[in-house]
C-alpha cells in the first residue's frame, strides 16, 4: 500500500525525487535539469542556484528560491555595456558562493584587465557586487543590473514549465513583481540612479579612484513573509560544531563541510517551531522525507541529541492513529529500487527507524523527559511491526504481492532488538516478545535468504511472493552489518552468522562492489548494472558509510579502510561536499569520480555520513544512562592520527584523539562519564 507523505510535512517545500515525475506533470524527454555543475547555496528555507559564470540567466534552475518558489530568475551585470569575463566561481560555504570576473576598461591599457567585478551571493536572498579598479586614472563607469522573475515553483521548473517572466514595476529603491503566487521586490543600497521597469533594469554611475572600490548590495524579498532566518544560523541551532584534525587533511575539510551542510538543511516544523529536522537535500528535496530525516538524525547523534528529539516529535505527530488499518505506521513516499525490484515504501523504513533512533539517542544522552515523551510513539511503531508480521517470520513489502526485501529484515531486526532494550530499560512490557520474534527472523533469514554459489554465496536481494530468491548483490546488503548493538560487538546476533558475515565483507570489498570511490548500488557483474543507475550501480554515500561503520565494528578493517579511502578521495574531488550519489565507474590512476546529474548536493544523509565516518574511525559507543563510553577505533589507524573535538556525549562536550598506533584517548568528557571496557 502506498503511503504518501502528509501534506503538512512538505507544505511549501520543493519535493522532486530523481527517478519519479516531479509534482504537477510528467517528465519531458530530457528529464530533470542537470544540477551537477551548479553552485548551490542552502540556508533553508532559502536556496540559491548559480552557474559557474555567476550570471543568473533565467535558464534552467538559476535563481534565488524561498520555500521552493523562485523569487528571482535573472540577475545579469554589465559594466560599460559589457559582461565581465568570468574567471572563477566557487562555493565559499554551505550558503554562499563567490564569483570573480574581469574587464579591460581603460583605453590603451594593453591586454591586462584593470577592473575586477566580485559577486558574493547568499542563500538568504542577498548579493554584494564589488568593483575594484587597478587603473592608474579615475574611472566613471555605467553599471547595469538586469533582473527578472517568473515566481515559478521548483516542481514546475523541473518539469520544464517555469512560466513567462513577469512585468516589473518601480518600487522604492528597486523593482517589484506581482502574481497570484505573491509579490517580490529587489532593493539596492545605494539606490539606483535610474530604474527602468519595462526592461527590468537598475542603473548606477560608479566613480572609481585609482585602486578604489565601490560596492552595491542587492536584496530580494518575498513581501509579507518577513526576513529569512535560517535555522542553522539561529541561537537555537541543535547541532554542535564539531571539528577534526589529523594527518589526513581531507578529514578536517570533510567534517567541517558536513557539519556546515547539516546546519544549512535544518528546517522548523511550521506548526511547532521548537522542533527542528533535516530536509532531504537540495535542490530537489528541500522538505521533510521521513526515512532520510531519521537516518540523518541518527548519523548526526555525535553532534547532540536535540536534532533527534525534534525529528522524532515532528514525525510522531504524523503517525497513523488507532482506528487506521495501518495503526502505528509513520507514512512516507515510495522510493525507486532499481530494475530488479518494484518501488518500496519508505514509510516502513521510517517506522522501523523511529524506535532505533530513540534508543540510540538515549545512549548518546537524550534527556529522560524526552525519552518518556516519545516512548508511546515508539511502542506503537513496535506494535505495528508485530501486527504486520503476524505469524510469519518476515516483514513483507506493504504493497499487495510485494517482495520480502533483505534490507527491510535488517531494519526490522534492529528495531526489535533496540526496541526491546528500550522497553526493558523504561520498565515497559513487550521486550520478551520482540526478542522471541527476532530469534525466529534470524533463523528463517539464515535458512532462506542465502544464495549458494561457487564463490561462497551471497545474501539475496529479496524473496518473491512465491518464495524464489532475487539473487543480485546490492549495496543495500550493507545494512546487514548495521545491527545497532553499539556496545555488544556480537555480530552473531545479526541476521548472518560469523561465516556468512565474513563472506559478505569479502564481497563488499571486492572490485565488483567497491568501485574505488565507494560501494556500487548494484554489483558490476550483475545484469542491468548501470554506473549512473541511482539504485542500479551508482555509489550512494549513505550505504557506503553504513558499510564502513559496520565492517569496522565487525572486525573487517581492511575492507572498511578500502571503502573509507574511496569516499575520502571522492570527497576531495567534490570539494568535500559529497553528493547523495555519483557514478560507480571504476577508479583509475589520476581519475576523478563522475557526478550524477540528478543528485542532491548537499544531501542530509551524505552530510551526516561524514559525521558517521569520523566517529566510526574512533569507534565511539556511548551508554549515557550507564555513565560509560567505549572506544574501539580501527586498529590499523587508516587515517593516521585523528583528533575529534566538539562532539557531545551525555549532554556535554566530548573530544577524543586516535594515535597513529590506533590507540584512543579521551581528552574531554562529561563529569562522571567512565571509559568502558
User: How far is the N terminus from the C terminus?
Assistant: 46 Å
pLDDT < 50 stretches? 1-14, 17-30, 485-492
CATH topology (level 3) name of the largest domain: Glycosyltransferase
Shape: globular
Helix content: 25-40%
Q: What is the top-level CATH class of the largest domain? A: Mainly Alpha
In round numbers, the mean pLDDT is 91
Radius of gyration: 26 Å
Strand content: 15-25%
Q: Output the structural class.
A: alpha+beta
Spatial order of the strands in the main sheet?
7-8-9-10-17-14-13-12
Q: In the residues, how many domains can be counted? A: 2
Q: Helical region count? A: 13
How would a crystallographer describe the biggest sheet?
8 strands, antiparallel
Number of strands: 35
CATH architectural label of the largest domain: Alpha/alpha barrel
Amino acid at each position: 500500500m502506498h503511503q504518501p507523505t502528509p501534506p503538512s510535512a512538505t507544505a511549501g517545500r520543493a519535493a522532486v525525487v530523481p527517478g519519479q515525475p516531479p509534482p504537477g506533470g510528467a517528465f519531458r524527454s530530457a528529464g530533470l535539469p542537470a544540477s551537477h555543475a551548479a553552485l548551490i547555496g542552502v540556508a533553508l528555507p532559502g536556496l540559491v542556484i548559480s552557474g559557474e559564470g555567476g550570471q543568473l540567466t533565467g535558464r534552467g534552475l538559476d535563481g534565488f528560491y524561498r520555500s521552493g518558489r523562485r523569487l528571482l530568475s535573472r540577475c545579469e551585470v554589465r559594466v560599460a555595456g559589457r559582461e565581465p569575463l568570468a574567471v572563477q566561481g566557487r562555493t565559499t560555504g554551505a550558503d554562499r558562493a563567490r564569483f570573480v570576473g574581469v574587464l579591460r576598461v581603460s583605453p590603451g591599457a594593453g591586454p591586462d584587465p584593470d577592473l575586477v567585478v566580485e559577486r558574493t551571493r547568499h542563500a538568504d536572498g542577498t548579493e554584494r557586487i564589488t568593483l575594484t579598479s587597478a587603473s592608474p586614472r579615475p574611472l566613471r563607469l555605467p553599471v547595469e543590473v538586469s533582473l527578472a522573475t517568473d515566481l515559478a515553483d521548483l516542481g514546475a521548473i523541473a518539469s520544464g514549465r517555469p512560466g513567462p517572466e513577469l512585468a516589473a514595476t518601480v518600487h522604492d529603491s528597486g523593482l517589484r513583481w506581482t502574481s497570484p503566487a505573491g509579490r517580490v521586490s529587489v532593493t539596492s543600497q545605494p539606490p539606483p540612479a535610474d530604474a527602468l521597469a519595462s526592461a527590468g533594469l537598475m542603473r548606477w554611475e560608479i566613480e572609481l579612484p585609482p585602486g578604489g572600490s565601490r560596492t552595491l548590495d542587492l536584496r530580494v524579498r518575498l513581501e509579507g513573509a518577513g526576513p529569512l532566518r535560517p535555522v542553522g544560523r539561529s541561537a537555537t541551532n541543535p547541532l554542535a560544531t564539531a571539528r577534526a584534525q589529523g594527518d589526513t587533511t581531507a578529514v578536517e575539510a570533510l567534517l567541517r563541510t558536513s557539519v556546515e551542510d547539516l546546519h544549512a538543511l535544518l528546517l522548523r516544523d511550521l506548526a511547532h517551531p521548537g522542533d527542528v529536522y533535516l530536509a532531504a537535500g537540495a535542490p530537489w528535496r528541500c522538505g521533510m522525507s521521513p526515512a532520510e530525516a531519521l537516518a540523518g538524525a541518527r548519523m548526526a547523534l555525535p553532534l547532540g541529541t536535540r536534532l533527534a528529539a525534534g525529528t522524532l516529535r515532528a514525525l510522531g505527530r504524523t503517525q497513523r492513529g488507532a482506528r487506521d488499518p495501518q495503526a502505528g505506521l509513520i507514512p512516507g513516499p515510495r522510493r525507486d529500487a532499481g530494475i530488479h525490484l518494484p518501488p518500496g515504501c519508505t514509510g516502513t523504513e521510517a517506522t522501523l527507524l523511529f524506535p532505533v533512533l530513540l534508543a540510540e539517542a538515549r545512549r548518546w544522552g537524550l534527556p529522560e523527559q524526552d525519552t518518556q515523551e516519545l516512548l508511546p510513539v515508539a511502542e506503537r511503531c513496535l506494535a505495528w511491526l508485530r501486527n504486520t508480521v503476524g505469524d510469519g517470520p518476515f516483514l513483507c513489502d506493504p504493497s499487495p504481492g510485494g517482495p520480502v526485501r533483505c534490507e527491510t529484515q535488517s531494519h526490522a531486526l534492529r528495531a526489535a532488538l533496540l526496541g526491546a532494550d528500550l522497553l526493558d530499560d523504561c520498565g515497559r512490557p513487550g521486550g520478551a516478545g520482540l526478542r522471541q520474534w527476532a530469534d525466529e527472523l534470524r533463523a528463517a533469514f539464515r535458512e532462506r535468504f542465502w544464495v549458494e554459489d561457487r564463490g561462497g554465496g551471497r545474501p539475496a536481494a529479496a524473496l518473491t511472493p512465491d518464495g524464489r530468491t532475487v539473487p543480485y548483490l546490492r549495496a543495500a546488503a550493507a545494512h546487514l552489518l548495521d545491527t545497532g548493538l553499539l556496545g555488544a560487538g556480537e555480530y552473531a546476533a545479526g541476521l548472518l552468522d560469523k561465516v556468512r558475515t565474513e563472506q559478505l565483507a569479502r564481497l563488499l570489498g571486492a572490485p565488483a562492489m567497491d568501485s574505488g570511490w565507494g560501494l556500487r548500488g548494484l554489483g558490476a557483474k550483475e545484469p542491468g548494472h548501470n554506473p549512473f543507475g541511482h539504485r542500479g550501480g551508482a555509489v550512494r554515500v549513505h550505504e557506503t558509510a553504513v558499510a564502513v561503520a559496520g565492517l569496522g565494528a565487525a572486525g573487517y578493517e581492511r575492507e572498511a579502510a578500502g571503502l573509507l579511502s574511496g569516499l575520502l578521495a571522492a570527497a576531495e574531488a567534490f570539494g568535500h561536499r559529497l553528493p547523495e550519489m555519483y557514478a560507480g565507474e571504476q577508479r583509475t590512476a589520476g581519475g576523478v569520480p563522475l557526478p550524477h546529474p540528478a543528485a542532491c548536493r548537499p544531501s542530509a544523509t551524505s552530510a551526516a555520513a561524514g559525521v558517521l565516518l569520523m566517529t566510526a574511525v574512533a569507534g565511539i559507543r556511548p551508554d549515557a544512562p550507564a555513565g560509560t563510553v567505549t572506544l574501539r577505533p580501527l586498529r590499523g589507524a587508516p587515517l593516521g592520527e585523528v583528533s575529534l573535538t566538539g562532539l557531545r556525549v551525555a549532554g556535554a562536550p566530548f573530544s577524543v584523539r586516535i594515535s597513529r598506533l590506533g590507540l584512543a584517548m579521551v581528552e574531554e568528557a562529561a563529569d562522571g562519564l567512565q571509559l568502558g571496557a
